[in-house]
Amino acid sequence: MTQQRVTFEWVLDESKTDPLHSPADNTQRTFGLDGAEQRIAIRLLRGLVLLLIIVAAASAAGITPAERDRRQAQKGIAQTLLVEGKAWQQRDSSLYESLIDPTLDDDWVDTWRDYWRAGEGTEPDFDAELLNVRQDALYEESGYMQATVLTQQPAFEWWQTNPYREERFYRRVDNRWLRTVPPASQWGETRQLTTKHLRFVYYDRDAEAVEVAAPKLEKAFAGMYRALNLSDPPDNAQSISVLPHPIGRWTATVAQLEVTSPLLAQIPEGQSDGDYLAYDIMNWLTYRAVSDAVPAYGLRYIYRWPILIWGLRGWLRDELLDQPSPWHVQAVEILRQSAHQFLPLKIEQITDTHSKVHPTREEVILRYLVAESFMTFIVETYGNQRLTNLLDALTHYSSWDQIIRVTYGLSVPEFEAKWNDYIVRKYELEETIHK
Length: 435
What we know:
By secondary structure, this protein is an alpha+beta fold. It has 4 domains: 1-62, no CATH class; 65-183, Nuclear Transport Factor 2, Chain: A; 187-293, Zincin-like, CATH 3.30.2010; 295-435, no CATH class. It is built from 17 helices and 9 strands. 25% of the residues are buried.
């Protein structure tokens, strides 16, 4: 049987002179279709061919303009991070500052300078892994690119972990990508979220993080007052603003709390923006709860015991926020490694802050963890009521002999023996201390 061969001649015009419409060749080209069906088939065929041509042309042209911009930015930002690493290695602060947008607000420039100065005297280890680059939500208007960076560098604060995640913003300036921060006007509309005791004010960009943090903080805030045997705080007792700029220190007597947006923070690896925001805010709220638990005249006395109050605030935060402290695993490991020379504990180890030698980070972590274990021990052994009694004693007495005997009815050596036994069991240190 002879094979039929079909050929096509491309004609854009659907005139009657189109060879595909020629009556003389109708028997071989219609495939059993009448005239109307044939015209429909031809239109469909032409549409398919045009689609194939468009797809082929797009593939030949490569990426879209937006994707091309993103890839160029990724290369530029990666280069900027390499130069930042070089600045750290060479301790070249002028090179470091040359990577910051010169039009940026002075508050951010000063903050990043502080990070740099805080790292002086430490090993210049720095590593930055660029995880993702994408156009900022308002890229067409602003030109900003947002980069997710996993950074490893010296711990500036004793509680800081490594590595941590940063959401960084960059802007192209003279063929270089410099670190910057979008102005508040590009942070979206202002929103509010209210719980029974807390009121949050924030921008669109932080909505998801606030919605995660708010219920945790509401539960923890009320729980702190119950743990300290206080009446529930009044409704709308605390206002919290989440803002896209650096925030200074906050006092416990002010009911207006401001914190920096998690989008501009250094967040421990593996922690979400919402969990970080809850942790950050809770650190400040513990100040207020402890202050409310002490008579006004006793505030100046309670902070004679700063490490112990650290431990109390840490216990309140970790117990009630229901999420682990990011550095707690590392802290416990330091305790286990040092237990054979650090134990048995004496109360003076967490209350004596007078020293001519600046403590190492490991020593500060140990002091804090021991202070926290002190609080955990007295709550689990004696209950919350004795915790309130302890705070009262700390404001009235200046010696541990008086404080321990009045609050727990024990001598200091008796109390320390029970406390050490608790720590060994809690942190499973039996094998460590007998090495």
